[in-house]
């Protein structure tokens, strides 16, 4: 499972875990500028969007020559993707 996505405006793929760490750094910078209480309020009231493409499923499960497609059943692979995303969020 790749867990990598195109970042808007970027020419490179980034791991989703790296994007989460980048967000944590951004939150810390906001805390420095606004103070912890205001930063927490801002982040808690924000609307977040996570766009998920089909690349993990198509590139890793439907391609018969890749190990993930041979290692997991369809339902197991969908559960793996779902559980991985839940852990990351």
TrEMBL record:
The record's listing under InterPro entries reads: GDSL_esterase/lipase
Name the family.
Answer: Belongs to the 'GDSL' lipolytic enzyme family.
What is the protein's name according to its record?
Uncharacterized protein
Tell me what organism the protein belongs to: Kingdonia uniflora
